[in-house]
Amino acid sequence: MAEKATILLVDDTRTNIQLLAGCLKHQYRLKIAMNGQRCLELAQNPPFPDLILLDVIMPEMDGYEVCRQLKENPNTKNIPIIFVTGRDSDEDEEFGLRLGAVDYIAKPIRPAIVTARVSTQIKLKYQSDELRNMALHDQLTQLYNRHFLIESAANKLAHVDRHGNPLSLLMIDIDFFKHINDQFGHHAGDQVLKAIAEILKTGNRKEDVVARFGGEEFVVLLEHCSLHSAVEKAEILRAEIEALEPMGITVTASFGVAQLMKHEQTFVELLTRADAAVYRAKELGRNRVVA
Ligand code: GH3
Ligand code: MG
Ligand code: MG
Ligand code: MG
């Protein structure tokens, strides 16, 4: 593991925190919350916890309620939770597990058991992060894949303010890519795709989504970006690709740009217009931006 995993300890009693911290502080980076509200805050801010050890009996908001809220929030729902509690009846344990906790530890805690159970959950968390990462990225370029793009576009469209903040999209299709493969081989073609992906990746804001849409097609989804700015951005990228010449191979791309219109309800409508613009760019001679 490259970096220490982060664990959020939540308990309203200082001595309990000290006990847990004593078991875990050498192996993990710890964050500490002494009430439910603070836990909800710390869970959503970096460094993001890989695991939460959550007390149940706390004033104001009990651990069950904290767990419910963490599971309802898309930003925190994937963080595993272990209840660490003095409530040790079967019913309590079943209740906690049904709320979505991955484990349930009864107080008084036994340090060796806590350490072992924590270690197991951290390993599982890393594995599931890795799987999720693989499921949402394109293996060759490490850009997001089509699946992620469509998922996040649906999210963005649901929240877009149709009168205020604009949402724009670039569709990018490499020119005569088939010739590149034919002339230089498939491996060289792959390297070209990677090099272009690097260009698309750099200089983006973190809310932008850059995805490999298909074989030699890419999409950049730009939040808070007007058609005018999107065209400017596309022109910069187009020129960078033209100037790149990866492995000495001259490569260009055609760009279609579209901005979400007020009446448009689905991502497919936006995508279709950008695709039509790419088609026109090809007809007009390729290596150009059409909006
Ligand atoms: P146009 O300028 O009209 O876009 O021509 P084109 O040759 O780029 O268009 P076309 O869609 O006919 O060809 C796309 C080619 O991209 C065909 C396919 O073999 C190649 N391709 C798709 N995915 C990959 C890949 O992962 N690696 C490589 N090397 N080639 C790929
Ligand atoms: Mg307590
Ligand atoms: Mg194509
Ligand atoms: Mg092409």
Automatic annotation (TrEMBL):
Q: Which residues form the GGDEF domain?
A: 165-291
Keywords, A to Z?
Phosphoprotein
Q: Which residues are reported to carry the modification 4-aspartylphosphate?
A: D55
What SMART domains does UniProt report for this protein, alphabetically?
A: GGDEF, REC
User: Does the entry feature the keyword Metal-binding, yes or no?
Assistant: no
What's one Pfam family the UniProt record gives for this protein? GGDEF
What this protein catalyses is: 2 GTP = 3',3'-c-di-GMP + 2 diphosphate
**Gene3D superfamilies per UniProt:** 3.30.70.270, 3.40.50.2300
NCBIfam families listed in its UniProt record = GGDEF (TIGR00254)
Q: What is this protein called?
A: diguanylate cyclase
Species this chain originates from? Shewanella psychropiezotolerans
